[in-house]
């Protein structure tokens, strides 16, 4: 069998053919699928590979290439099924594991992707693409040291891999190795002097290293190449403010907010500059906005991009029964604040309920029920990311709190993290909250 490279596909296509005379027509369909894939006709390729599979269902290459066609059509679930079959027929094919890992990562199943990438590396330890892909998944899982090792291995095998160099630079920043990141960003710019992100990345590292003049120079280049990048204006404004150029910084903060009005840090920076320039009224307005925006978490927009829509989420969440049980009133009266919050929320005063719940948590930091109820109220108000943070705290305090896993699961699913959401729902069922199985049946298959 031989392998051919397909520029338009996600990965290279395996063009292995059965030489048996009885399978000649299946081989014809297979070749037609290869040809169509090379021209970007993935729908036609899928049909051709399907015919080849019908005529010869034991040919791993047909399943593999049909999987690639589906992946290029963004049908990653269907692609994974084909890769599964290809691996079942040929468990030693590194490319099949790599491709399946890529499709899993496209679904945010980065833990599953890691297993596939690691198996691909066992079978073919000299492929830079696999190390890079595993590094990306590790980054998404915040396994930054592992990601750093993978990106470094990619570069060892392929020294001019600009994507890996840039990714390693960003990873070093996350590990606070700002000095080390400079060399990676500079290498990217040697290869591509018009890579705006590399200028921006290097500028941020220089800013962290207190090289404000150098940071401004790099951010100037980033903005020249990418004039709609709000973050570059923000960081340049910050660097200018550090050099006491408050007028210049003010202009950059204004531009940041024009491009991204949810950046509460930019309001703070602009308020600081206005104060330094004598505009105290404007400064106070900006500080107020920075405080309110930060508290309401408006810098993180919520998108309901899973099969569980906002309406479905509200319905599923509201089916959860409250667990407010009477307890002895402690000296700090946290229980009273908690129960008053439940009553206020039932009266429709969610804002006052949140104040009481925060007070209950302040008085009793291990109050898991208070965190859970706070998360429920925030979710009802549409602050799903804030809700998840509170539910995380509840689970940390009570790892067997089944309803929390259930609610966190449906929220994650609604926000597009189907894999993470379904895992939480499974955990809720395992802990005895049986309604989760109905949701799993409806939304996790």
From TrEMBL:
Pfam family, one: TPR_11
Keyword Repeat among UniProt keywords: yes
Ranges of the TPR repeats in the UniProt entry: 26-59, 60-93, 94-127, 128-161, 162-195, 196-229, 230-263, 264-297, 334-367, 368-401
GO biological process, one term: receptor-mediated virion attachment to host cell
Keyword Repeat (UniProt): yes
Cellular component annotations (GO), alphabetically ordered: cell outer membrane
PANTHER family referenced in this protein's UniProt entry, alphabetically: TETRATRICOPEPTIDE REPEAT PROTEIN 6, UDP-N-ACETYLGLUCOSAMINE--PEPTIDE N-ACETYLGLUCOSAMINYLTRANSFERASE SPINDLY-RELATED
Organism classification: Bacteria, Pseudomonadati, Bacteroidota, Cytophagia, Cytophagales
Gene name for this UniProt entry: TTC6
Keyword annotations of the record: Repeat, Signal, TPR repeat
Signal peptide residues on this chain, from the entry's feature table: 1-22
InterPro entries for the chain: TPR-like_helical_dom_sf (IPR011990), TPR_rpt (IPR019734), Ycf3 (IPR050498)
PROSITE patterns noted in UniProt: TPR
Entry protein name: Tetratricopeptide repeat protein 6 Short=TPR repeat protein 6
